[in-house]
Amino acid sequence: MSPQQPIRVDPKIWQCCAGAAVKIPKLHSHVSYFPLGHLEHVSPSPNPSTLSLLDRSCQFIPCTVSVVNLLADPCTDEVFVKLLLTPVTNNCVHQPLEVRGDQHDGVEVVSSGKTLTPSDANNGGAFSVPSECAKLIFPPLDLQAEKPSQELSITDIHGKEWKLRHVYRGTPLRHLITTNWSEFVEEKKLIGGDSLVFMKKSTRTGTETISVGIRRQKFGAATKITENSVTEAVETWLSKLYIILLLKVGVIL
Fold first, then answer.
1. CA 227, 232, 237: angle at the middle one, nearest 5?
2. Which residues pair with 164 in a beta bridge?
3. CA 173 to CA 118: how far, in whole Å?
4. d(CA 213, CA 18)
5. What is the DSSP letter of 207?
6. Domain residue limits, the chain
7. Cβ distance 197 to 111 under 8 Å?
8. Cα→Cα distances 68→82, 188, 207, 228, 245, Å
9. Which of 63, 94, 176, 208 to pair with 44, CA 20 to 30 A apart?
10. Angle between helices 227-238 and 35-42 (to 10 degrees)
11. Has residue 101 got a pLDDT over 80?
12. Greater confidence, 230 or 208?
């Protein structure tokens, strides 16, 4: 069976999943690629032949951002960006095209999240939702009802729809997700320390949809690129071709 391909993600949903602190270069903007710094980041003990190759090149490579693809990992749900950088050679620099902002497109996305506790992720059948998150993201719940509850349709980062039940119960009273939560934990392989990001997308027509993203607990370097990939990038630059970078969120180019 061929591996699943990463899918493109709505830019506003992607940004909520990545976090406000993550900044991605704009399409057609000018950036500088530092191969040695990138190599040191991904490989504490780089191959001497790779260092030799980098020594023969300049310390940084001026580039323009030719392609920006906002993607989600099909296995972990983590968002990342794929950048195609075009090296600037012979002092030939194309002026960046004007990129219009999307702040006036009539679409608003608000988000709220929580880091999972061991009890949230132990597949016990329920997830405790912070009150602020429930009020901001979920439809209003009639708290005066005998057993306040509602069915939620929540879409994950890959477009799969999850039917979850939101209830308000317990001592003390709290918001919980119950039905199908165990299945969600099992399929997403959630553990304590992972975080969920709930997002509500609203349009001018009044349509509202709810999505959920995942930020995994970090144990190591937040990049998918390897030492060989850095070497290949520099070699392609020396051939005046392209540099393709796959960067996990949190990595600064």
1. 130
2. 152
3. 20
4. 9
5. -
6. 7-89+220-248, 108-215
7. yes
8. 6, 26, 28, 22, 10
9. 63
10. 160
11. no
12. 208
Right CATH for 108-215 from 2.40.330.10, 3.40.50.2300, 2.60.120.330, 3.40.50.1360 = 2.40.330.10
The 10s digit of each residue's pLDDT in 116-132 is 999 899 867 899 999 99
Close Cβ partners of 251 (under 8 Å, ≥ 6 residues apart) = 41, 222, 223
Q: Which residues of 218-248 are buried (b: 16+ CB within 10 A; e: fewer)?
A: eeeeebbbeeebbbebbeebeeeeebbbbbb
Whether a cis peptide bond, with omega within 30° of 0, leads into 87 is no
CA dihedral (152, 10, 200, 157) positive or negative = positive
CA nearest to 209, candidates 132, 139, 106: 139
C-beta of residue 158 within 8 angstroms of C-beta of residue 7: yes
Which strand (E) or helix (H) includes residue 29? none
Place of tokens 């020594």: 55
pLDDT tens digits for range 173-184: 999 999 999 999
Q: For residue 63, what pLDDT band results from cuts at 50, 70 and 90?
A: confident
Cα(246)–Cα(253) distance, rounded to whole angstroms?
11
CA distance 166 to 141: 9
Mean pLDDT score, 47-70: 74
Tokens for 54?
């980098």
